Amino acid sequence: MAVNAAWAQEAVRQALAADRRAGVWHAQAESVELSGGNGSPSTSEVPWFGSIAGAASQAFHQVFSADRQASAKVFPNGSIGFRRQAAKWARLRSALTTMPLSQRDLPYAHWEFSDPGSGDLLRVVPERGGLISGWRCGDREMVYLDLERFLDPAQSVRGGFPVLFPITGGLPDNQLPLPQGTFTIGQHGFARQLPWRMEPLADGRGVALELSDTEETLQAYPFQFLLRMEVRLAPGALEIGTTVSNRSAAPMPFSFGLHPYFNLSSLEGARFEGLPTECLNHLTMAPASTAEQMQQLAQGIDLLVRPTGAVRLVDEADGATLELQLSHPFDLVVLWTEPPRPMVCIEPWSGPRQSLLSGDRKIELAPGASTELHTRYALTRG
Fold first, then answer.
1. Phi-psi region of 20 (alpha: psi -120 to 50; beta: other; left: phi over 0)
2. Residue where a domain stops, chosen among 29, 63, 98
3. Residue 382, Cα to own-chain centre: how many angstroms?
4. Which of the listed residues 48, 130, 232, 292 has the most CB atoms within 10 Å of its CB?
5. Are residues 280 and 183 part of one domain?
6. For the CA atoms of the chain, what is the radius of gyration?
7. pLDDT at 382 over 80
8. Which residues form the domain of 356?
9. Tens digits of residue pLDDT in 256-297
10. Would you say residue 1 lies in a domain?
11. Distance between CA 355 and CA 237 in Å, rounded?
12. Residues 89-99: tens digit of each pLDDT
């Protein structure tokens, strides 16, 4: 399962803690249909049980079954303890079914997290590289997604927020030389191609996505690791904090990046603010004038800049400005367009292409060490 089932067990813990604090055990007992002889409701008699989706249903079933068995040994049918257990199950039902994370089938299979206050939402597809596939901020869908291409698993994704790890960009002949040997690893690494785990954040503001090493990844990158991305909705903004942990016995080099695609009214009506005067043109791998490159925005660009502050995308036709707020060492920016798609990629990277070969901005974690990388996208209108 892509969803981490532990969150359902945490909901049980919270429900019990709330019971103890409030001293309320059986206020809702009448709302639960009780079965005959085993001291608990059966799943077939609880009409809401089937509405709890996916892994949440499985996790709840495990907790429910274990609790039922324990209760049957302690509480005779109809006793106060029996009614208390019934009330606890009713409150747990309420906690699980009102969480702002829900599974959707259309227009594609995904999970949706919504902020009940603002109406902003995230769409996430954990099994497709931990992909954030949508971010609605106010009345604006921020994220570009080529749905036809996305629905064809044989094609790479054009849209969403692909995750780049353990390299950004490509390597000569896809070869990564390390003290452990030479390894074959493709463009941008493997994180965007693998299934991730997902769970709601405890603060109720978003979701956590996790990826760890497998036999497959060890063939390309000989390190045990854990990536944890915490994705949060904030007023008018999207916040992403990533923790990279080295679980190996050897130092672990890596680069990390995000490759988000953002909707535009048109490429011709877009401009950038906050860029330095010089950039690296990825098409020629040579230094270039940023201003000259910006004139090619509608014809297609691929460049890297090293800004000293926030980078802003101004969509003049829509009257919207999207600001990428950076923090070291996650503060290089790649800009990419692919005409005629009405989108632009504004990508935070920790290091440039071939960083693990050149040493330029390479991050190396000692055994057992972790590091945090933070970025934030903020939308303003008018």
1. alpha
2. 98
3. 29
4. 130
5. yes
6. 24
7. no
8. 103-381
9. 999 999 999 999 999 999 999 999 999 999 999 999 999 999
10. no
11. 30
12. 655 554 444 45
